[in-house]
Amino acid sequence: MPRTDGQPRPGSVGTGAVAGRGYRGRLRAAVAASAAPHGYPLAPWTATAMTSSDRGAPGTAEVLALLAGATLAFLGLGAVAYGGSHI
Fold first, then answer.
1. HEC string for 31-85
2. Residue 2, by phi and psi: left (phi above 0), alpha (psi -120 to 50) or beta?
3. How far apart are CA 6 and CA 53, in angstroms?
4. N or C, where is the chain less crowded by C-beta within 10 Å?
5. What is the pTM of this model?
6. What is the SS3 assignment for 1?
7. pLDDT tens digits for range 23-61
């Protein structure tokens, strides 16, 4: 019996932009959507690990400086992207 609330039954193919694409199509969409959020933490982590292996573990002030710099860079990019009015 079909649902009357317009929602698909559990386990059935959903509605919307991904309908009819199948598993691989939905997987491609998920991978594309998560590429940047996944890649961003890897870049600074790798740079930090390489630097730490040469110079030793960073101190508290250095860790906080990295956090502050990354946060300010993110806020700066947001200001450029949104014209500074949404931050």
1. HHHHHHHHHHHHHHHHHHHHHHHHHCCCCHHHHHHHHHHHHHHHHHHHHHHHCCC
2. beta
3. 56
4. N
5. 0.45
6. coil
7. 988 888 888 888 888 777 888 888 888 888 888 888 899
